Amino acid sequence: MLEVIIHGVLLGGLYSLFALGLSLMFGVMRLTNIAHGDQIVISGFIGIAIASVVDINPFLLILFLVPCALVSGYAFQYFVLNKTISKDPLPSLVITFGLSIIAQNLLQEIFSANPQSLDSGGLNTLGISLGNDTVVGVLPLIILGCAIGCTFGLQWLFTHTAIGRAFRAVSDDRDIAELMGLSSAKVYSMATAIAFSLVALAGLFQSMRTTVAPTDGPSLLLFAFESVIIGGMGSFWGTFLGAMTLGLAQQIGFYFDPGWGIWFGHLVFILILAFKPSGLFPKTKG
Question: Which residue ranges traverse the bilayer (predicted)?
Fold first, then answer.
């Protein structure tokens, strides 16, 4: 059971990277990006494509993927999604759903439908022995450390910086924030740029840890969405702990039967929705 808990926490680290960007966009704009999972897959395939042409350390791909994600996220929000932001969530849902369909078909056309992975240089096979036949993978530990760092960084950004105060202001009341001189369009675009950079990290680590396929987007979106809802809206640490809960639930399911893991995670999600719809850790303080 100790091994189950350890692996559940490590899996939760990956899920928290999936969920942080979604939590950021929803928290600032009340916008659910249906294409979020597909953007994770796109980042993974871009890393795979670059590595197939250039012999490069996979971690150096971060230096290319993150800046590109920042620029594309800012532009996508500023020129497309900002026009859909209103009290009616349907326009943004329709646009991001359409983007999801386009992304899946385009990826299948370019890379085929076969799952692919990014060569991590053997890092995904390295492990640290804890005794009693328990081995912890080095790559999952790196992913967990990155998830903790990103969560801490986002919470600090929101609570101790001017841009964080701007995020909170437009989230609480956009009209009053604009009267005080803030440009909601630019603030929203900056939030999406940061969210896309987190997506780029998630996609890179997903392709290194396992495989990515063009049709994986909806399932990754579901894991991210469940992590946010389980944790409860209020802070990024809530999202992080929600991801830990989902990862543990899935690993416990895998412990009993290999076919039960994903189902166990969905079951925990449904139970939390039924008995604590606000989530386990709402308004958690950083």
Answer: 6-28, 40-56, 62-81, 93-114, 134-158, 187-208, 220-242, 254-275
